[in-house]
Write a structure and sequence with these properties.
Keywords: Membrane, Transmembrane, Transmembrane helix. Helix content is 67%, strand content 3%. The chain is mainly alpha-helical. The strands form 2 sheets. Strands 1-2 form a two-stranded antiparallel ribbon.
Length: 281
């Protein structure tokens, strides 16, 4: 970890900082491109493949993850310029980005493959290979989130000198708090200790008739709700920061603080609601 944040050893092999930064950007663009490339056939197949999983199309989960992972990698790509150039071109940022791309790609490839086979990717230990793959996917997801946390720490500790303050704080704390909250909710969701294996807590264990667009259970608690709000702190706080810089720059620090507290409060409230077996809406 010291190596990641030490400029004396975190410089990329090439002396050309612009080229080194571009290499990192290309990594993230390739990762985003893979998600979008898989989303096209997934969307087409959604309308022609009649197979169901948990009473909805087997292609619903891949599409959600393809969109979510593309958004996550896109967020990292857009926030990279908030890091000062020398660090942005360094090995630490490159390794964090590489980890994000590899883990996101591995996760979506497995989820898409399982959908094509008509098999569940999550909570599936039906065969030794699937049990091993599910465990590996969980470890990969943790690394993906940790890579976002690392980028967030870089933004906070090594900011570009002229970076807008609210966007810098929103971007940095959005990634840090979003990563921590995501890890917590993902562990609760994946452990199967709350309501048994799966995302349901009480209610009917089906995804049929879920909340439009999101698919969250309307008959009982759903642990995907706090997980969703936790993950999207990574986008909510940077957007808040962007708005504050444009409309109320003098409120940058208190505004981001209030936004962070509200975001965490929403995660906690929806987590308690789900654990109690109550639907979000």
């Amino acid at each position: 970890m010291t190596m990641l944040f030490n400029d004396s050893v975190a410089i990329a092999p090439t002396p050309d900082l612009a080229a080194a930064e571009q290499r990192t950007r290309r990594l993230l663009i390739v990762g985003i491109g893979l998600q979008l490339a898989l989303a096209i056939p997934s969307l087409i197949t959604l309308f022609i493949d009649e197979r169901l999983l948990n009473d909805i199309s087997v292609w619903s989960k891949p599409l959600k993850f393809q969109a979510s992972l593309a958004l996550m990698l896109g967020t990292l790509l857009l926030l990279l310029p908030l890091i000062e150039p020398r660090t942005r071109a360094g090995r630490g940022v490159w390794l964090a980005s590489l980890t994000a791309v590899i883990t996101a790609s591995g996760e979506i490839l497995y989820i898409t493959l399982q959908a094509a086979r008509g098999r569940a990717s999550h909570f599936n230990d039906g065969t030794p290979l699937e049990a091993m793959a599910y465990s590996a996917m969980g470890a990969g997801a943790a690394l993906l989130v940790l890579s976002s946390l690392v980028i967030g720490v870089y933004i906070l500790l090594r900011p570009r000198p002229n970076a807008p303050i609210a966007l810098r704080l929103g971007g940095g704390w959005g990634l840090v708090l979003g990563s921590v909250a995501t890890l917590f909710t993902a562990f609760a969701l994946g452990s199967g200790e709350i309501g048994g294996p799966g995302h349901w807590v009480g209610g009917v264990r089906t995804d049929l008739g879920g909340l439009p667009l999101f698919g969250w259970s309307r008959s009982g608690g759903d642990l995907r709700v706090p997980h969703f709000f936790a993950t999207h702190i990574m986008q909510a706080l940077p957007l808040l920061g962007l708005g504050l810089d444009r409309l109320a720059p003098s409120l940058a620090r208190p505004g981001i603080l209030v936004g962070a507290l509200v975001s965490i409060g929403v995660v906690v409230a929806t987590f308690v609601q789900a654990v109690q077996g109550q639907p979000f809406l």
